[in-house]
Amino acid sequence: MGTKLIFITGGARSGKSDFAEGLARAHPGPVAYIPTATISDPEMARRVELHRQRRPAHWLTVECGDSLAQTLSETAEHAACLVVDCLTIYLVRLLPPDLPDAGAVAPELLAAVEQRVEQEMAAVEQSCRASNSDIIVVSNEVGDGLVPAYPSGRLFRDAVGRANRSLAAAADHAYLIVAGCPLDLKAKPPLLPWEVEP
């Protein structure tokens, strides 16, 4: 089969996790599931439990550490298919804890966050390429909704957008899930009007 990086994105409740898990269920080798969420309130606890209940019991679960790239490298030694769910929640860890809810974010802070996200995605991509496992990364498409009303929200939206673009570009396969339906983002694009022969 060869090592593949598969990137899956979509909106809330679009079915992206279901699609990712369906791909993993069809994989011929052992599967490891890497959740990135930390349980911070009862709602998150319910979501985590629902995800846990629907996964096959024989899948290995490996909690994501401080470095997703390192977690991928270490987990690849134990499974042929890795599912990361999800990149968006992991990116929260890259943001400074004291971001202001109101007022402008300093330009140097914006630049620092951009650089950290870029470095992190480069490390994740390197781990994926060095791995002998197929890797499925789930993320959220956060740029299609309302523009966040506060600067820190816009900073996070932009960070997720950059990370998604980076991984989608590096991926062998990329899918956008809309209402449960996968759209292949790397399918051969249609010809432009001026490229069509008369």
Mean pLDDT: 90
Separation of the first and last Cα atoms: 40 Å
As laid out across the biggest beta sheet, the strand order is 3-2-4-5-1-6-7
Judging from the principal axes of the Cα atoms, what is the shape? globular
The main sheet comes to: 7 strands, mixed
- Spans of at least 5 consecutive residues whose pLDDT stays below 50 are none
How much of the sequence is in beta strands? 15-25%
What oligomerization state is this entry in? single chain
Radius of gyration: 18 Å
Per DSSP E runs of 2 or more residues, the count of β-strands stands at 7
Number of discrete helical segments: 6
Assign the structural class, choosing from mainly alpha, mainly beta, alpha/beta, alpha+beta, or little secondary structure.
alpha/beta
Q: Could you estimate the helical fraction of the residues in percent? A: 40-55%
The ordered H/E elements are EHEHEHEHHEHEE
Report what the structure shows.
The protein has six helices and seven strands. The chain is α/β, with parallel strands linked by helices and 198 residues long. Strands 3-2-4-5-1-6-7 form a seven-stranded mixed β-sheet, sandwiched between helices. The protein is globular.
Question: How would you sum up this structure in a few lines?
Answer:
The protein is α/β, with parallel strands linked by helices. Helix content is 40%, strand content 17%.
